[in-house]
Amino acid sequence: MAVQTTRTDTFTALDSCFTTELAVLIGSEPPRGLTPNRFIDLVEEVRDALAGSSLGNFRDASDHLDSAAACLTDALTEPSTVQAELLAQARIHLRGAIETAG
């Protein structure tokens, strides 16, 4: 039970930190109160939108988001011993994507 709570709390924290900035990158309103799966969907949506850009920094940001999505997805299924590390890596990639796209 503690593993689920920790994972949910961490996804909630990632949602609050990154959802608005991710939505801005694709010109949409930020959704609120995302479930972990919906947050991953948002990351993938932004990744796909940026991947098609002719701007190199957007394509680089898309690469960061691809890595973040992989870490987030793995964190949903991996044992608790590696979840914290995967979520920390996802946070680094999310931050890198936003900085790179900016």
Structure, explained:
- This protein has about 100 residues and is an all-alpha fold.
- It is about 80% helix and about 0% strand.
- The protein has 4 helices and no strands.
- It has helices spanning about 1-25, 35-50, 55-75, 80-100.
- Helix 1 packs parallel to helix 2.
- The longest helix is centred in the N-terminal third of the chain and has 24 residues, at about 1-25.
- The radius of gyration is 13 Å and the shape is globular.
Biggest pleated sheet: none
Structural class call reads mainly alpha
Euclidean distance between termini CA atoms: 39 Å
Q: What is the count of helical runs?
A: 4
Question: Overall mean pLDDT score?
Answer: 87
- The outline comes out as globular
Radius of gyration: 13 Å
Sketch the topology as an H/E string, one letter per element.
Answer: HHHH
Portion in strands? under 5%
Sequence stretches where pLDDT stays below 50 over 5 or more residues: 1-6
Give the beta-strand count.
0
Percent of residues in helices comes to over 70%
Question: Short summary of the structure?
Answer:
With 102 residues, the chain is mainly α.
